[in-house]
Amino acid sequence: NAGVMQNPRHLVRRRGQEARLRCSPMKGHSHVYWYRQLPEEGLKFMVYLQKENIIDESGMPKERFSAEFPKEGPSILRIQQVVRGDSAAYFCASSQSGTGVRNEQYFGPGTRLTVT
Amino acid sequence: QQPVQSPQAVILREGEDAVINCSSSKALYSVHWYRQKHGEAPVFLMILLKGGEQKGHEKISASFNEKKQQSSLYLTASQLSYSGTYFCGTEKPNDYKLSFGAGTTVTVRA
């Protein structure tokens, strides 16, 4: 499967626990974006990463949220001390380039986080 | 600032046409269109770069008027498989992240 891969697909956490979401971009893609989608709403940009670099994290809450895209391995979105308001679908997208026609962003299947 | 999509929802019978509009108050570099079915990931349909180009994907086409900062998605001779929520994502010059509209829910009935 050459598409964007995310795991887990569903994640249940109790308030105060940590959630760790993983994303492997499409083959040949080095740009990764994380978006959050609340029920019945559109997608909201969170963070944009290239290998080993956070390029733009303007959409990510400054507390409890962090993201990384190491040289080896998937990109990880980490949410510490989760609260009920963190319940949402988190989508990862990847592109070949950051601008222009190659900024076609392809989405993974998403991780649906439920905080109880 | 996110783009504004209209209409919010549209119901069609198979074979009918529809137009979905996406407007931005900011200068745009490109517009991306996606379709998302309930519980699934958004599926990329097409990207339009500034220059007023048009593109097509099966019987779905789109245009981009950069002067008006507007894009329109045209669903022609709709099929049942066209049902879903359509999102436009806009990209500003020298930017890369997409700002998405609230979506237009399309329901195609037999």
Give the low-pLDDT segments of chain A: none
Helix and strand element order of chain B:
EEEEEEEEEEE
Number of helices of chain A: 0
Strand content of chain B: over 45%
**Could you give the count of β-strands of chain B?**
11
Percent helix range of chain B:
under 10%
Range of helix content of chain A? under 10%
Strand composition percent of chain A: over 45%
Number of strands of chain A: 11
Radius of gyration of chain B: 13 Å
The H/E string of chain A reads EEEEEEEEEEE
Q: First CA to last CA of chain B: what distance? A: 37 Å
Mean pLDDT of chain B: 90
- Derived from helix and strand composition plus strand pairing, the structural class of chain B reads mainly beta
Query: Quick one: biggest sheet of chain A?
Result: 7 strands, mixed
Main beta-sheet strand count, sense and barrel state of chain B: 6 strands, mixed
Average predicted local confidence, pLDDT of chain A? 92
Cα-to-Cα separation, first versus last residue of chain A: 33 Å
Number of helices of chain B: 0
Oligomer: heterodimer
What is the compact description of this entry?
The complex is a heterodimer of chains A (116) and B (110). Chain A is mainly β. Chain A has no helices and eleven strands.
